[in-house]
Amino acid sequence: MPILFALVGATGIGKSSLSLELAEKYDADIIGVDSRQIYEGFAIGTAQPGLDDLKRVPHHLVNFLNPEESYSAGRFVADVKEILQESPNHNFILVGGTGLYLQSLMLGLPEIPPVDVAVRSDLEDMAERNGLDSLYEMACRVDPEAMANVDKNNMQRMVRILEVYRTSGKKLSEWQKDRRGGIGKIPVFSLCRSRENLYARINARVDQMMKDGWMDEVRLLAKTVPSSAPAWQSLGYRELLAASTAVEVERVLDDVKKKTRNYAKRQLTWFRWQVESEPIDLDTETDCLTVVERKLTKKIF
């Protein structure tokens, strides 16, 4: 199989730098496993790999999708399979933090009946009228298991959970227990750090995003991308666009840091319980490349 392994972990934990070293070591391309880094132009606020990184190692499923398009685990699985079919003799590494995508690729997708379009439209209208908080609370009541790792800004995912339940009368989490079409088990390395170090890295990264021109990126995107586009659901974008004073911007950044820390915590929990993986502690390991090579050679997976 051309996929050598997956490198996963919470946002800001250090996947990008290590993945570049591993990709060069194993002469592999990187396939992104991130539901936010997919959108064209939404680069700084989603921490897409920079130009230097893209020159070092070819990346797939990053910065490729029209901001007005929706994306799903099903489409991710189809896109990865297409990449593999086009280059069956090439090496690939999966890198990212969207656990649902990785799980769907390995285990397959649930055979959920078609959803009533009117139901979806009604839920989207409800979110528009009452805000995402109401949608979030409703989805948590209906299917807390499926909502375990869903951010409050992820309207697409919340609508999906609710529309499946309303259309079929069965929870999405129940449908997901019966899957078809997965590529099978692959080695997964899950990156870890102490909460203190991880949270400090997240705070510093948000500050660096502003120094890198995140606000300018937001204003530029607002000129061409409709406010209804799914890409605007990425954390911080709509909020920064609405901020008109320095005080409001600082308030937004503090909120982005807090929500990102909370999301990272949920990611760590999800990867600990939902995917069989080998942990790598970035706070203690001094040679992660050797650790990965040793574990792969021993075929412990």
Order of helices and strands: EHEHEHEHEHHHHEEHHHHEH
Describe the sheet with the most strands: 6 strands, parallel
Structural class: alpha/beta
Instruction: Tell me the number of strands.
Output: 8
Q: Note the beta-strand portion.
A: 5-15%
Q: What level of helicity do the residues show?
A: 40-55%
Q: How big is the Rg?
A: 19 Å
Task: Outline the low-pLDDT stretches.
Answer: none
| Overall morphology | globular
Tally of separate helices: 13
Quote the average pLDDT. 92
Which strands sit side by side, in order, in the main sheet?
3-2-4-1-7-8
Report how far the terminal alpha carbons are from each other. Answer: 14 Å
Description of the structure:
Helix 6 packs across helix 7 (155-168). The strands form two sheets. This protein has a six-stranded parallel beta sheet, with helices on both faces. It has a two-stranded antiparallel sheet with strand order 5-6. It has 301 residues and is α/β, with parallel strands linked by helices. The chain has helices at residues 15-25, 51-56, 73-86, 99-107, 117-130, 132-142, 155-168, 172-175, 195-211, 214-222, 237-242, 246-274, 288-298; strands spanning 3-8, 28-33, 59-60, 91-96, 108-110, 179-181, 188-192, 278-281. The chain is built from 13 helices and eight strands. Helix content is 51%, strand content 12%.
Secondary-structure blueprint of this entry?
Blueprint: E1 3-8, H1 15-25, E2 28-33, H2 51-56, E3 59-60, H3 73-86, E4 91-96, H4 99-107, E5 108-110, H5 117-130, H6 132-142, H7 155-168, H8 172-175, E6 179-181, E7 188-192, H9 195-211, H10 214-222, H11 237-242, H12 246-274, E8 278-281, H13 288-298
Parallel strand pairs: 1-4, 1-7, 2-3, 2-4, 7-8
Antiparallel strand pairs: 5-6
